[in-house]
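Memo to structure team: turn this sequence into C-alpha cells by end of day. - J.P.
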Amino acid sequence: MTVNAKVNVSKEAQLKVEQFLYHQSECLDERRWEEWLSLFTDDGIYWMPASRDQVTAEGQPNIFFEDHYLMDMRIRRIEHPYAHSQSAGHRTSHVVSNVIIQTQDKKNKSIEVTSRFHMVEYRLDQQRYFGGKYTHKLLETDVGYKIKQQRVDLANVEGPFDFVMQVWL
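Reply from structure team:
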C-alpha cells in the first residue's frame, strides 16, 4: 500500500521521513546543536524567506539564509560563555505534522517533503508562537537522511517580532 498516491511513497519511506523530522525537532528543543547541524549536508542551506512568494534567496532580503559555516558560527555565538543575549536562556517546543512527500527521485536518492510546524519559544519571561510550513530537500545517505535545504515559511512572516530570533525554527 502506498501512503501518497501522487508520488507512490511506501509506508516505510513515509515513516523514515517523519522520524527524521521529529528527530530534528528534538535536537533543537534539547539544544543539541552539533547533532542538529550534523543533519545537514556539508553544502546544506537553512532558508527563511522574508516573503511568502519568494522563489529564490539570492539578491533579496531573507530572515535567514545560512550555509553550514554560518549555522556553525551561530552555534558558537549562542553557546559562548559571554553571549549576554543568551544569559536569560530560552526553551522551545516544536510540533511537526502533516508530513507529505512531494517528490521522490530514487535514482538520485532525493526527497522533497513538506510539513507544518508550531513552535513555542519561552525567553525573557515571554512566550512567542511561530507556525508555518517546512519544505525539506533531503538526500538519502549511508547514515540516513541529510538536509540539502530547509525552507521555513512563517505563517506571519510580515508580522512584527519583539526581538530577534536567536535560534532556528
